[in-house]
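Crash report, auto-generated. Payload:
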Amino acid sequence: MLFSLSLIGYYLSTTTYIIFFVTQKKKIRSAARCLLFGAGVLHTVTIISRYFLAGHTPLTTHFDTVSFFAWSMTWAFLSFRWRYQVKNFGTFVSLVISALMTIGALSSQTIAELPPALQSAWLPVHASIAIIADGFMAMGFCSGLMYLLQERELKKKRFGVFYSRLPSLEALDNLIQHCLTVGFPLLTLGIITGSLWAKQAWGAYWHWDPKETWSLITWFLYAAMLHQRFIAGWRGKRAAILAIIGFIAVLFTLWGVTFLLPGVHSYVR
Amino acid sequence: MSVDSILILGVNHKTAPVEVREQLAFTSDPERPFKKLREIPGCSEFCFLSTCNRVEVIFTSPHQMETIRSIKKFLFATSNIKEDDIDNFIYLHRGADAITHLYRVAASLDSMVVGEPQILGQLKDAYRDSADRECTGVILNRLLHKAFSVAKRIRTETNIGGSAVSISYAAVELAKKIFGNLEGKKVLLVGAGEMAELAAEHLVNQGISEVIVANRTLERAVNLAKRFNGKAVGLAELHAQMELVDIMVSSTGASGLILHQEDVKPIMKQRKNRPLFLIDIAVPRDLDPKLNDLDNIYLYDVDDLSQVVEGNKAEREQEALRAERIVTEETLKFLQWIEDMQLTPTIAALRRKADAIAQAELAKTISHCGNLGARDIKSIEKMAGAIINKILHDPILFLKEGHSHEDKRLKLDFTRKIFGLDLEPEKEE
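Recovered output after restart:
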């Protein structure tokens, strides 16, 4: 029930953001922000109530994971907003949030009994850090996409919908970097806490279970990206494409692995 | 006061060629126009506007023929144009037309480059100069202030000033889409021609921090660089300089390309792929068109820029239509105000306002005290009516005993302001 309400809140916010994108009226943007904030608060309440309902951190089912993913993206965006004003970023971010929430709404909301292996204080720490990192990567994906749209119009010298509505290339490039520099340490921390937990639960730091392997691949992708950026100056278009590829890897780690390659993480369904 | 006593007389770029306009330049003595206009009989209020594209006198006058003739004479006093020819160059707007014209000027709809923002500032300065010398009165004060707010409204509600309509503006706009803020960015001018200078000027106005000029003859480079506090280099240093700058404007007279794609590839590596905006305004072109295929390089030549400008012009025409609608609407509002600025409508408005307040308060009071008889209500209503009459008695007397026209107008204006009779019911933001 609560979840449906926040879902509606996100839909409303996204619609308002799209209307703002078309009309560029400031009042509409404020309305969209308020709606997003409201939906974010409702969503927070939803997650807390799931916690009490389940009796443990609600991050073990597919529904909860996706919902928390959307939640962390919402709050990452809202907290980012205070520091970086990026024109029309909200439209793109809210679209992704709504997409995630829709996927959440389509999955089963039944609360599963927590398997003994997962009964640990590591669960909230590891899972939430990993997913919040994903939230920032998702924002990096949005900014990468915006960069490519803007750069295409500048290169082709045909100015359509995006040219006037999107911020400058430099602002978008900086945004990609900001998202990654926050997201990457969190991703690292997520992997470290995971391996510490694995040691405690199964006696070894690393199992090469598909989820672990794929998060490592994702980690290397982002690490290479940041390294190349600082050393060889991979910025602009290349950085934007990499931010998008990185996010696809994140999504594969999240879903592809769960549904295609079974392993110890397959509790998370 | 009838609307028809508001007049505008002047010349602009549409009615008079530059040879005529330059003869009317009022630059030598800033006090002269005010002194002269003040002496003209029947010119009760006026505001004098002089820019490079227009000279206008906005004034109010009861007996007009004579005043108009004197103002014409004043405008053309320094020119060699015969009195009979003057009418070929001037325009005279009266009443609603004058209001519309002023609004259009303020909103830059009457400008040579429609939507250019300077005119509003010039009009504001002109008004301040006239108001400081007490040349304006109730009517023009309100009219000019309205003109400013109409211009602002048009600027916020339409996109009239939104897009660049000259090549150098277009270049600046593109640079902003690539770099965002231009502060701290460097520009390299290759070739020291006039076009390069113009583009550099716009860029410097937008906050570019450093200008470097590269030219075949170093002397010209040094001269141009001096203008922008920049430095001059020889053409041989072109590649080295390209590693450091963000924007390059090329306008040499070279007969072939001066920069090829292969030259720039290694430079981009040195630049760590920082974006580079290349503007080629030379004909024939200086820069290899294939440069645009390299990542993080944005190359625009004259044709590309003109295309941007043309696209913007079409858009501006669309927006201008919307702006004209706003002007019409606001003109009607001002006409209404002029009509209300008479004795009878003002007294009526005053009574209406007082009655409305009394009715609202009565309704509130009566609903609060529940068990009132019909007689009680009647006497409370009577009391309210008496209070209104007694309070309004003196203001109405004060309004009625005006002497001169200007005196009356001041009183009306004052009364309307103090009782808030012209406040618009809904205010946005």
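Post-recovery validation: DSSP finds nine helices and no strands in chain A.
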